[in-house]
Amino acid sequence: MSVTISATQVKELRDKTGAGVMDCRHALVDAAGDLGKAEEILRVKGIKSAEKKAGRVASEGLVEAYLHMGSKLGVMIELNCETDFVAKTDEFKALARELAMQLAAYKARYISREEISQEELDNARQIFKEQYAKEGKPANVLDKILEGRMEKYFEEVCLMDQGYIRDDSKKIRDLIKETVAKTGENIQVKRFARFSVGEN
After folding, report:
1. Sign of the CA dihedral running 151, 196, 168, 61
2. pLDDT exceeds 70 at position 46
3. What are the pLDDT digits (tens) for 61-106?
4. SS (H, E, C) the chain
5. How far apart are CA 196 and CA 17, in angstroms?
6. Taking Cα atoms as reference points, which of 154, 149, 116, 122 lies closest to residue 135?
7. Cβ–Cβ < 8 Å for 83, 60
C-alpha cells in the first residue's frame, strides 16, 4: 500500500532537520508518514554520509570567541568547513558557538585522542594501574577496569569524546556529524585555546 506524503509534512521535516526535499520525502515514505521515525531515518543517513565526507579538505570556516560572565573565563576556537558559503550559515555558526561553550564548561586539552602522545597515555595508564593495585583489585579483572578508566580519561581530556553539555547522551563528535549532515560539508575543529584568570 503506497503512502501519500503531503508537502506540509515534507516542509515540517525539512524545518526540523535541514535535510533536502527529496531526502525528506523518501524518509517519510520509508517511515509510512511517521514524522519521528522519518527524523531518525534522516539522522542515521546523515551520520553515515558525514563519515564519508570526513576525508575532504576543510580550509574555510571561522574563529568563534566565547567570554563567560564576569570575564574570568574565555575560549577561542577555529572551526573549519569546505566553503565560505557554509561558514556563513546559521547551522555552522551555531555549532561553533556550542563548541566554544563546551570548551568553557569542560577543560578539554585535546581535540581527539589521536593527538595524545604515547608517553602521556603510558603515564596515565601506569597511574591508574598503581591506583587500582593499591585498592586491591584482582589481577584477572585489572585490564578490563583499566580499559574502562582509559575511556573515561579520553572523555575528560578530548573534546570529541566528551558528552555534549546540553545532552550528555550525545558525544561532541555526534553533534558535529549532525551539522555535517545538514550542511553537506566536512567540518573539523582545527584548534582551540581556553583562558581562565589565575590558571597556568
Report:
1. negative
2. no
3. 999 999 987 888 999 999 999 888 989 999 999 999 999 999 999 9
4. CCCCCCHHHHHHHHHHHCCCHHHHHHHHHHCCCCHHHHHHHHHHHHHHHHHHHCCCCCCEEEEEEEECCCCCEEEEEEEEECCHHHHCCHHHHHHHHHHHHHHHHCCCCECCHHHCCHHHHHHHHHHHHHHHHHCCCCHHHHHHHHHHHHHHHHHHHEHHHCEECCEEEEEHHHHHHHHHHHHCCCCEEEEEEEEECCCC
5. 36
6. 149
7. yes
Which residue is listed with cell 558557538? 97
- Cα 11 from Cα 44, distance rounded (Å): 19
- Integer Cα distance of 78 and 3 in angstroms: 45
- Kindly report the pTM of this predicted structure: 0.69
CATH number of 7-53: 1.10.8.10, 3.40.50.720, 3.40.50.150, 3.40.50.10490? Answer: 1.10.8.10
CATH number corresponding to 60-111+158-196: 3.30.479.20
Closest to 185 measured CA to CA, from 73, 102, 85, 107: 85
Q: Is the pLDDT of residue 12 over 80?
A: yes
Q: Is 3's pLDDT higher than 80?
A: no
Distances, alpha carbon 199 to alpha carbons 38, 117, 170, in Å: 47, 23, 29
